[in-house]
């Protein structure tokens, strides 16, 4: 299986990080003594970030260093012009010394910004950091404050571990913000079964994410299928690959509802065409122009999308499960490639939650219902099995049709442990293992009268995972919830008993959030009872701290999280809204500052 080289499949350049070395502007001995060390600090940060970061599309992150140190407004303006020309979307100001705060600061209201003030005694870099943070607060231009815990000697070019962590956390979040700006959410259909998240709120996307919403009716799929508006050569190759690699499992329908072999083969054909069409709708396909479909070749420049499916589509046509699952997976018939973010039931808010996780990690995301809390008592009653270990307080059953990426099997391995890798690290063996761990079953016609195929797998236990969900609340606006935890294993017979009580043809993740004994994380049941919607997006790794930082940049408060206090990193001015009560301060700061894009 070939690996697609990293590329930008959307319109627009990938954002760069701008490094701004600020300096004491006084000549006749002061500035001259600082020029080399200040520019060296900037170049050192640029090297560090370039080595340790990639965009979600796999491309390396490029850092642009200002042409000169910035000692006043003239050089600040010249740097801003260069950054605009170079496509800088995130800025980091660095200095080892005192500088003139409001004269050297980054004034762009839309670019995420941070300042690293060197913790040294020879020159007062920390004094500048404090002064410029005050200026940022006074002018309503929030910035992240980066300050090492331990004093360093003058000329020390190392970046301390705590500073490294903050630089990376800010940069990941800032790049996510810059990447979303100007892109689209593609709503393929409308509201699915009254689900609130699929009532796509265009002002939210525009004001908070800087994105536009594109909408199409699902009849566009039937038009493209009927008129052959897809690449026929790729279709034949995709269908052959699907037949060879997507292994069919048991048909759980009873005889009265079982589709014939001929119907099932037709469902496969339609499902593959739907996957091609959805992808082409999202990002376009130059091959369509060669076939005479110039308008359809353009796509919608969609960074994320959603497919309504139920019920107007699925009552007549094959469901979207194959389309959603294969697109959100990190590989297909074309090889290993960046996964697409596609939300089932057009749940745009869960689609955005998936997108945030993907932009921070470069890995595929699991979309699932937060379906059931199984208490130890209930599991014992139904199966005779006593939950223990990490699962002793109960488990959450995460399950839904379709868009749980095959990466979510946990069949990829690193050091013998199950992982979900950034897509560019996935090997052919990893992809084959995911396919082997997945079976495809005829859709249950009680749900999907038009047939189709659904994935079935069980996520391997032992993976650190973060579940998140963005919700819209009238009068409040968007708010995010985050739950870090782990996937867990159950004995096969226990899993089968519990799984088949729901729907045996859908992928299952048994998840245990990390509990704290307090508030919404008092225990596993309380996490379930506080979850704000029927869906959640699940990302590999404990990325809650990165999500908190990203949410603050977007002015979206986090109303529920179990991230350790010392890892929470928000703009410096947040403390002014209530340093003694950081969660309340988050709400007040976001409300006061308002949406990033107005």
Walkthrough of the structure:
With 598 residues, the chain is α/β, with parallel strands linked by helices. Helix content is 35%, strand content 19%. It is built from 18 helices and 22 strands. A 6-stranded antiparallel beta barrel has the order 12-13-20-19-18-21, surrounded by 4 helices. A 5-stranded parallel beta sheet has the order 2-1-3-4-5, with helices on both faces. The longest helix has 23 residues, at 30-52. The protein is globular and about 90 Å long. The mean pLDDT is 96.
Q: N-to-C terminal Cα separation, in Å?
A: 46 Å
Helix content: 25-40%
Enumerate the spans where pLDDT stays under 50 for 5 or more consecutive residues: none
Q: How much of the sequence is in beta strands?
A: 15-25%
Please state the average pLDDT score: 96
Question: Would you count the extended β strands for me?
Answer: 22
Give, in spatial order, the strands making up the sheet with the most strands.
12-13-20-19-18-21
Structural class: alpha/beta
How would you sum up the major sheet? 6 strands, antiparallel, barrel
CA-based shape: globular
Per DSSP, the total helix count is 18
Gyration radius, to the nearest Å?
25 Å
